[in-house]
Structure formats: C-alpha cells, structure tokens
Amino acid sequence: MSQSIRINEAIRASELRVIGASGEQLGILSRADALKMAEEAGLDLVEISPNANPPVVKIIDWSKYQYQKMKEAQKNRRSNKQGELKQMRFGMKIGQGDLDIKLRKVREFLVDGHKVRLQIFFRGRENAHRDLGYEMIKRIATLLENDAVLEHEPQMAGRNLSVVIRSK
After folding, report:
1. Are residues 68 and 121 in the same domain?
2. How far apart are CA 141 and CA 137, in angstroms?
3. Single residue among 78, 107, 134 that ends a domain in this structure
4. Which of 13, 47, 91, 126 could form a disulfide with 6 if both were Cys (CB 3.0 to 4.6 A apart)?
5. Which of 164, 92, 99 is CA-nearest to residue 132?
C-alpha cells in the first residue's frame, strides 16, 4: 500500500471535508471533530484526496479498505496478462501433418488474444538456403491469412528467421 495515504493522527490539515461510513457528506469539520466522530464509530479517519481544498477524508475501516485496494490491484494485474507473446518454432523439414498441428495451436493462441512469434530455425547446411525459409514464412502466412496479420517483415537473427503475428 502506498505510504502517502494518511490515517487518523497523521492527517495534518486543520479543516477537512468529511464523508461518513455509509458515503454521506458530513460537511467541512475541524480535524479534532472528525477524529472524534471516527473514534465514536469505532472506525478510522482516512485521507482519500489530500490535494483537494480542504482535503477529503472518509470514516472507514482501514484494514478493510487496504484489503479491497489489494484485491483490486491483483485483479488488474491478472487482466493485463492477456497480451502475452507466445512462440512456435518450425524446422525446415517439417511435414504437412506436423505443420497443421502447430498451426492449429497458433490459432488457439490467437483466439485467446495472444501475439505469436513464428520462428523457423536453420540447421547446418540449411543456412545456405535461407530463401526457402522466407518461402515457408509466406506459406504459413497464407495458411493463417483468415486469422492473423503479420506485425512486421520476417527478420533473420542468427540461425533463426522470425516474424510476429497478431489476430485480425
């Protein structure tokens, strides 16, 4: 939790706009009156908007507020993982059946909202025929043209030819 949120006696302003435990506006009160109201309710005085004039505070249960903020942050982190980059590697001598299986898996990744890096690796003498790798990328792109678009042109990096695709 961020350290900038002040509670109870840590609040410095002399006048505060106070919001009650059930969300009702209690008006502008002195710091002492607001602390007294929070204490009577058995709750904490939490500074919600310190930059407002006067600062806005709310009478709430601090531990419950912290817990809700933590859960909200976890939910946001979980939903951000959707755009992950998956990778599928192809050898130059791949058979049609194996290619179909790998392309089916690539389509599943695309449906789930992931980007996919298609990587063709060259072994030994295959490096002398890199043009065949570019042809293979074109063939894969035409097989996936209904489902995906290329993000950039194929690039060589060492012994690998790769391209990133995303769903349409």
Report:
1. no
2. 6
3. 78
4. 47
5. 92
**What's the rounded Cα separation, in Å, for the pair 60 and 82?**
34
Decide if 125 contacts 159 (C-beta within 8 A). no
Residue 50 has φ and ψ, to the nearest 5°, of -70, -20
Q: Which of 47, 78, 109 is the last residue of a domain?
A: 78
Structure tokens given for 87: 């990778």
CATH number of the domain encompassing residue 159? 3.30.110.10
Predicted TM-score (pTM) above 0.70:
no
Instruction: Return the bridge partners of 18, or none.
Output: 27, 57
Exposed (0-12), middle (13-18) or buried (19+): which is 148, by Cβ within 10 Å? buried
Same domain flag for 74 and 99: no
pLDDT in tens, 78-87: 766 656 889 9
Q: Do 158 and 98 belong together in one domain? A: yes
